[in-house]
Amino acid sequence: MKPITHLNALLLFSFVIAGCKDQNIGKDTKNNSLTLKEVNEIRKVSQDEASVPFKPIGLYDESLHQEPDTSSWKVEEFNQLVGKKFKKLEKVIQNPKEIINESFDYLLSKNFNPTSLTPEKKFIVYSDDRLEITQAVEPIETISNHDEFSSMLTELLEPLNQSDKIRTKFKTFNVELNDSELTEATTLLEIVGENNNKIISIKSTWKCYWEWTEQSNILKLQNITPINYQLSSSKKIENQNLFSDCTESIFEGVKDFKNQFNRGSNYWASRIEDRYGISLSGWQGMAMGDANGDGIDDIYVCEPGGLPNKLFISKKNGKLIDASSLSGTDFRIQSQSALFIDTDNDQDQDLIIATTLGIIFMENDGRANYTIKHTELIPESAPMSLSASDFDQDGDLDIYVGCYSLRRSSIHSNGTETLNAARPIPYHDANNGGRNLLLRNDLNWKFSNVTTHVGLDQNNRRFTLATSWVDFDMDGDQDLYVANDYGRNNLYRNDLDQNGIVKFIDIAAQAGVEDMSAGMSVSWADADQDGDLDLYVSNMWSSAGNRITYQRQFQENSDKESLKGFRRHARGNSLFINSGNGTFKDLSLESGTSMGRWAWGSRFADINNDGLQDILVANGFITQPEDSGDL
Q1: Could you count the other beta carbons within 10 Å of the beta carbon of residue 544?
Q2: Do residues 563 and 550 touch, judged by C-beta distance below 8 A?
Q3: How far apart, in whole angstroms, are the C-alpha atoms of residue 75 and residue 210?
Q4: Nearest C-alpha neighbor of 410 from the set 47, 26, 104
């Protein structure tokens, strides 16, 4: 491992020395930065004389990720039994020609009721020269023209007959246990087949009725009722998919792409000391902007502590070159996010980086040579996200900093009390996170913390992961949406008080967009083409959460509102349609946009150039290699 560079060490000491000052975070501040004189003084301080807090600050707590005991949860015992049955069925589906010879005694009850799994009535949702999507008319009508389960599967898989390889996945997410009757379980099914000409996908939701009692481990399927069905087909051109992975091609010749990025978290965690902030949680983000002024967007990638951040410059031939060291941006401090913006109004893209200690502001000379101009310590909490807007319409861009959990050093308690204080409490509606900041741009690389002054300290103790500025009410100024983990989100409307001073008001509740869940990203677009902006928020869809939170023994002493909050936390992503009157309608379930799995980033984008806004969702999380079922 390369040693930390002189510049990185200097910057870390800058944050530490600044943090030793007596600061009151509840008040607005005009100067949290260091002068050049102070920086020069820091150079005289030896590393032995200062304690650098490299260790990650409350972003990951091992005790929160221990596996629960499932023995007392009958619904989870049931799910494990169902999972084993469906694992066997997945293997059968992947070899359709063998279905006719398969015995399904391990799965089916003697009372099994064979019926069609393919809807009789379907309609085309979308069709062009490459892509066609067909859905069932709901409620689904099927014909009981089957004598055996094998013929049911054969009919279901008929569109994939020419596929060379098939992938299958079942996921049970809702269970209703009945001691004296059949146990009802709702299961998602996805089957993907592929050959040289096309990719075909079948997605369906089944209501399954199982013969099972809590006293028995014998589980047999009696009936399947399809709830929804979708068949998608994408043609290949010259054996190429609609989208092709060109990562290796554009990074050809960049040695650190393989040496650093392709190693994985486990590799680096076993080689870099924990005190440097080598996180396993994958909190790092990236930014895109034209760093060298050639009209082509470049990429800045944030990395865990101990690994250098990377600036990749795009060439006209589509390749990338590594300019991290030459540009002066290869910090080895644990970094969460970054932003390319023109901070000083000189027509080039400056760079702002959110690190575990605070914010780094860097000036661009127009040719991707960056110089540190300002550092902003965030004493209470680690900054997680950055967004920029001219909120006060004075001609320069201001910065909103989203923060997550409190630093343990900022919590005045000891032992387990400190550990508990850093956790979200209550889990589904936490209000004990770090405070976000609005930094007003005062020019000449000076910034003022005006959070309280402009009213943004309302409901400002959440666990923020994403923020987005937009004029949602079309009144000519920038409003702010804040997506928070573990609870409610914020929609701050930008208003003027009687003196003409900007004042933000949190109207999320009255606008219907609090979305009490696990908010992780925000995207705006005119989804319904009615002339105003609609909102999409990525959250967490959890099959285990959907199963457990509906059981009688779950949170037995909680009130109805709390139970509703817990259940909402596992429901998934949210699509809010702007009504044009300051309120939004939640059409997540009706639009079919809620199931984004464990979603992180999400974006509206017209991916097929038809003039309509599509949605891309990035999902997944670290998990046990042998158990990714909840993702």
Answers
A1: 18
A2: no
A3: 13
A4: 26
DSSP 3-state of 400: strand
Tokens of 549: 């939170």
Tokens of 382: 């680690």
- pLDDT > 70? residue 421: no
Q: Please state, in angstroms and rounded to a whole number, the distance separating the CA atoms of residues 332 and 447.
A: 25
Q: 584 forms bridges with which residues in the sheet?
A: 578
Of residues 48 and 220, more confidence is placed in: 220
Q: What is the pLDDT of residues 511-527, one digit of tens each?
A: 999 998 889 999 999 99
Q: In what order do the strands lie in the sheet with 479-485?
A: 463-470, 479-485, 490-496, 502-506
Hunting for tokens 């079309």 — which residue is that? 474
pLDDT confidence band for 56 (50 / 70 / 90) = very low
In this structure, which amino acid lies at residue 492? Answer: Y
pLDDT confidence of 619, banded at 50, 70, 90? confident
Distance CA 76, CA 114 (A): 27
- In DSSP terms, 371 is beta-bridged to 363
Q: Are 310 and 322 in contact (CB under 8 A)?
A: yes
Paired tokens of 609: 């150039």
Over the stretch 533-591, which tens digit does the pLDDT of each residue have? 999 999 988 887 777 776 766 777 777 777 777 778 788 899 999 999 999 999 998 89
Contact 186, 227 (CB under 8 A): yes
Q: Is 458 exposed, middle or buried (0-12, 13-18, 19+ CB in 10 A)?
A: exposed
**How far apart are alpha carbons 481 and 484 in whole angstroms?**
10
Closest by CA to 452, choosing from 391, 504, 402, is 504
CA 616 vs CA 4, 163, 592, 601: distances in Å: 37, 26, 13, 8
Is the backbone of residue 427 left (phi > 0), alpha (psi -120 to 50) or beta? Answer: alpha
3-state SS, residue 603: strand
Q: How many CA atoms lie within 13 A of 119 on its CB side?
A: 22
What is the per-residue pLDDT for 147?
Answer: 79
Identity of the residue numbered 618? A
Query: What is the distance, to the nearest Å, from the Cα of residue 9 to the centroid of all Cα atoms in its chain?
Result: 31
Segment 176-196, tens digit of pLDDT: 887 678 889 999 999 999 998
CB 136 within 8 A of CB 121: yes
Q: Residue 176: which H helix or E strand, with range?
A: strand 165-176
* CA 113 vs CA 78, 82, 119: distances in Å: 21, 18, 16
Rounded distance, CA 502 to CA 83, Å?
A: 55
Kindly compute the dihedral angle of the four CA atoms of residues 112, 118, 122, 127, in this order, to the nearest 10 degrees.
Answer: 150
The 3-state DSSP class for residue 304 equals coil
pLDDT tens digits for range 151-167:
999 999 999 998 989 99
In tens, the pLDDT along 575-602 reads 999 999 999 999 998 898 988 888 888 9
One DSSP character per residue, 421-480 reads HTS-SSTTS---SPPPEEEEE-STT-EEE-TTTTTTTTT--SEEEEEEEE-TT-SSS-EE
User: What's the pLDDT at 625?
Assistant: 59
Collapsing DSSP states into helix, strand and coil, what is residue 188? strand
Question: Residue 416 contacts by C-beta under 8 Å, 6 or more apart in sequence?
Answer: none
* DSSP assignment letter at 36: H
- As a whole number of angstroms, the distance between CA 189 and CA 205 comes to 6
Dist CA 213 CA 227 (whole Å): 24
In this predicted structure, what is the pLDDT of residue 412? 52
pLDDT tens digit string along 306-346?
A: 899 999 999 999 899 999 999 999 999 999 999 999 999 99
